[in-house]
Amino acid sequence: MEKTCSRCILGDTFPNINFDKDGVCNHCHRYDKRCSKFSVNPENQKKLRSLVERVKSRGRGLEYDCIQGVSGGRDSTYTLYLLKQWGLNPLAVHVDNRMDSSIAVDNMKNTCRKLDVDLHNHTVEWEEFKDLQRSFLFASVPSVDIPSDHAFVTVLYDIAEEKNIEYVFSGASFRTEGLGSIEWSLHDDERFILDIQSRHGTMRLDNYPLRTIADVFRWYRKGIREIRPLYWMDYRHRDVDPLLERELGWKYYGGHHFESVFTRWAFAFLLPRKFGIDKRITDYATLVLSKQMTREEAFSKMRESIYSAEQEERDRKFIADTLELTEEEMDSVLHAAPKRNFDYDHHSRFHRTLQYLISPWRY
Predict the structure, then answer these.
(1) Span 304-316, mean pLDDT?
(2) How many domains does the chain have?
(3) What integer pLDDT is reported at residue 359 of this predicted model?
(4) Does pTM top 0.85 for this prediction?
(5) What is the 3-state secondary structure (H, E, C) of the chain?
(6) 331: containing domain
């Protein structure tokens, strides 16, 4: 019988989980440490206001004083809304991989228009990206979304460097989004990407925005820093959603990271069916810890389906058509033996730790 954490809903089948003598898991303890560091108290609110003023001061005379990646989702939309409320002048950046949902596209356009924010839409070099995304599907690993995630971060920081913008804002929120396992997702290792492409791809990645530790070090030396304002706030979905709907005409898209048709299909169908990975569990566990959901509600929601067979069929056809996958190729993706991310090449743990230590994320 599966052992379940006495506080959240994670069980002993979750990778690298452990429990203390009271049955509380390490995920909960990690959450508590972050809550302690980013406590919503007057002192930290003063720090956040001071940080915003520093961004304004450093950005005087520039076209933009900060930059933020947007997807049309709740977190990035609300963060952009806050930046304007605070009197900042951000540049919004989106990386277009041809697989955004129509709701996400409308959300981005409406939000930037109503907030009077310039939107830079970076379109990937399609043939290379298509080949790389196909490679990740054929590689049979759970980190199928890496081609988009890696490109998004790299493009964002490249543009910040090009425009001499020191501050990159992020909509990351540890109170609403759970930390996945390294067995599920890897985002920053170019050797992983290149190994998969060399084994399953058909072309070189000459134009794909690949980043190395040298790029991260260069951004750090140039003073580029990432700010996560939602870390400092009591960020709650039930309060934010009606505000975004009322102020920006924003619409919900059905699930976490469902802004992308590809990610919706991968997270709601491919990962659970092929790898037994349901990424909702870490988000729901976190929402339990932040008291936005009870354990009973979380367990109940985990039993619910948020993705119909009809939607899956439409999404699969869209993805197959977009990536030019035949029925036989798509069938092979679904039925090939699952592999671990670490079945492919990676930098050493020391290298990954060093890259984290010099990463621009500091606030």
Answers:
(1) 96
(2) 1
(3) 80
(4) yes
(5) CCCECCCCCCECCCCCCCECCCCCEHHHHHHHHHHHHCCCCHHHHHHHHHHHHHHHHHHCCCCCCEEEECCCCHHHHHHHHHHHHCCCCEEEEEEECCCECHHHHHHHHHHHHHHCCEEEEEECCHHHHHHHHHHHHHHCCCCCCHHHHHHHHHHHHHHHHHCCCCEEECCCCCCCCCCCCCCCCCCCCHHHHHHHHHHHCCCCCCCCCCCCHHHHHHHHHCCCEEECHHHHCCCCHHHHHHHHHHHHCCCCCCCCCCCEHHHHHHHHHHHHHHHCCCCHHHHHHHHHHCCCCCHHHHHHHHHCCCCCHHHHHHHHHHHHHHHCCCHHHHHHHHHCCCCCHHHCCCCCHHHHHHHHHCCCECC
(6) 38-357
